[in-house]
């Protein structure tokens, strides 16, 4: 478990995503950034960042191994996170909505091994 964790979600309008990440990245071991994709568990809670914003943040080193993706993550889109430079993913709605947790965990573990 990380010593320090901050969750950045739909940040204040007066600061950009990059400005907000720059403010926090050296203060915490890990941050979660959300929502990356449309939420699975919260209807109407859509992705907060465009593909170009995420790409720019990755190219600038803002998204790195310390940034954990959150929001709308499932086995169909998890592979995209590594390409975006994220250090990991937090999977919530997928777990809450799945009836066979053992098979879901096995599927996610295989996917993670394939990605790595």
Compute the number of helices: 5
- What is CATH's topology name? TIM Barrel
What is the average per-residue confidence, as pLDDT, rounded to a whole number?
A: 80
Strand order of the largest sheet: 1-2-3-4
For the record, the CATH architecture stands as Alpha-Beta Barrel
CA distance, first residue to last residue? 21 Å
What do we call the CATH homologous superfamily?
Aldolase class I
Report on the architecture of this protein:
The model is unreliable at 1-12 (pLDDT under 50). Helices cover 37% and strands 15% of the residues. The radius of gyration is 14 Å and the shape is globular. It has a 4-stranded parallel β-sheet with strand order 1-2-3-4, with helices on one face. Strand 3 (67-70), helix 3 and strand 4 form a beta-alpha-beta unit. It has one domain (5-115): Aldolase class I (TIM Barrel, Alpha-Beta Barrel), CATH 3.20.20.70. The longest helix has 15 residues, at 101-115. With 116 residues, it is of the alpha/beta class. The chain has 5 helices and 4 strands. The two termini are 21 Å apart.
